[in-house]
């Protein structure tokens, strides 16, 4: 473990990224625990009044993100400064993405179906940064051998091909596969070669005069969503809390803090 940490985190200069990811995840978890306790009226936060002036935690999140980002630029690469700025940045991003859905919809949709986008964005961000920390980016390791340096050329070509396939997957309406395809070798090929989703730019452009392919696209999308959407929503509810029912939403404005 110590050798892996030295070789893949400390030596390439990824320790600030690890600190940022850790503080980001912890901030999101702590924030969701607090908001769910307030919502349920339990624990030390049960008596918090949500009336009056309410400042969403995206506001301090933005301030911390700005402070951490500019601080990292100004502090250089050595000393305690980069670590501190990484923690500030991670905390800020955790607060911002926890309310990502509110920024996207410009409304307090924290405990609604639209609010699931915040949880999804947090999970995607944590997963992508985690992949980078695990060494899926073929750059940044010092004191490498000649064989390792020669291998980087093929790695760069692989990344370029992955990016090309990621663009194809994105045009076919498969954004998640496209995101991970930029980092994980050849994962975007799956999305690029399979049938596009209905309504995607690819489907609108190339399936217009192909009724069989269009029907196949709709059928695959139906079976995919039926299989995975329920599981995805259960996972989101477990991580971030289940959204309110419409009847509760109509009588609730901002009851989480």
Could you explain the architecture of this structure?
By secondary structure, the chain is mainly alpha-helical. The chain has helices spanning 2-10, 15-40, 58-75, 81-98, 100-105, 116-136, 146-171, 175-181, 187-193, 201-206, 211-240, 246-251. The protein has a domain at 8-47 and 55-141. Helix 8 (175-181) runs antiparallel to helix 9 (187-193). It starts with a helix and ends in a 6-residue tail after the last helix. The longest helix is centred in the C-terminal third of the chain and has 30 residues, at 211-240. The model is unreliable at 138-144 (pLDDT under 50). The chain crosses the membrane at residues 15-34, 55-74, 80-106, 118-141, 153-170, 177-196. Keywords: Membrane, Transmembrane, Transmembrane helix. This is Integral membrane protein.
């Amino acid at each position: 473990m110590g050798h892996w940490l030295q070789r893949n985190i400390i030596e390439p200069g990824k320790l600030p990224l690890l600190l940022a990811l850790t503080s980001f995840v912890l901030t999101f978890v702590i924030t969701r625990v607090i908001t769910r306790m307030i919502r349920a009226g339990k624990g030390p936060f049960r008596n918090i009044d949500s009336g009056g002036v309410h400042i969403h935690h995206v506001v301090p999140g933005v301030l911390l993100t700005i402070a951490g980002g500019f601080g990292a630029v100004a502090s250089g690469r050595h000393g305690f400064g980069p670590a501190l700025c990484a923690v500030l940045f991670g905390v800020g991003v955790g607060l911002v993405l926890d309310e990502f859905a509110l920024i996207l919809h410009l409304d307090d949709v924290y405990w609604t179906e639209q609010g699931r986008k915040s949880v999804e964005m947090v999970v995607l961000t944590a997963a992508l940064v985690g992949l980078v920390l695990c060494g899926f980016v073929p750059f940044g390791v010092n004191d490498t051998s000649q064989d390792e340096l020669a291998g980087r050329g093929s790695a760069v070509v692989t990344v370029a091909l992955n990016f090309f396939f990621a663009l194809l997957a994105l045009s076919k309406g498969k954004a998640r596969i496209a995101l991970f395809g930029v980092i994980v070798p050849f994962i975007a090929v799956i999305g690029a070669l399979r049938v596009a989703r209905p309504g995607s730019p690819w489907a609108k452009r190339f399936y217009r005069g192909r009724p069989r392919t269009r029907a196949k696209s709709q059928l695959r999308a139906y079976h995919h969503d039926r299989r995975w959407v329920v599981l995805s929503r259960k996972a989101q509810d477990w991580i971030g809390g289940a959204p309110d029912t419409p009847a509760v939403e109509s009588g609730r404005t901002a009851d989480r803090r």
